[in-house]
Design goal:
By secondary structure, this protein is an alpha/beta fold. The chain has seven helices and five strands. It has a five-stranded parallel β-sheet with strand order 2-1-3-4-5, sandwiched between helices. α4 runs parallel beside α5. The chain is globular, with a radius of gyration of 16 Å.
Length: 174
Amino acid sequence: MKIFSLFVALILSSTSAFTSAHNKLSDSEGGDTSKQELQKILFVDDSLMNRKAFSRVLKISLKKLGLEGQYLVETATNGQEAVNMADQTSYSLIVMDMQMLNMNGAEATYKIKQTSPKAIIIRFSTLTEGEVVDIAPEEAKETILQLFSAVLKKPTKQQAVQDVLKEFLLKQIE
């Protein structure tokens, strides 16, 4: 029954609710609660399907790089949620969609970089550089492209994700 409840939490709620349900399950079974000590990766996209699929790709890539169990993948549904989460938590890596409601990825990246200038933010989008500049806040139009550490084009391949993780996460470990 506990596994079914965990599965329902994954499908019906955000990653933070799932993490909370997982931690409660671990606590009640006397399991390991060291999840709070893991490094974190934030994936931001307004599409539930993209969040689920990319989270899975991230986990597979982490495993292939020998980093399984060292990172917790969290998700946000829009730029404003990402800014709020980044204000509360230090992320090793943020993968940011550009086209979202409430706050687009360019504006969210600009706001996150104002408070966390060293944040590693990967642009994840179908947009061209010119289109990213067009959606950027007026005060960031000249510098927005330099705020991204790398670019992953949608749709992306597993190897491209793995290469980005290798470049930015393995560098942090060394």
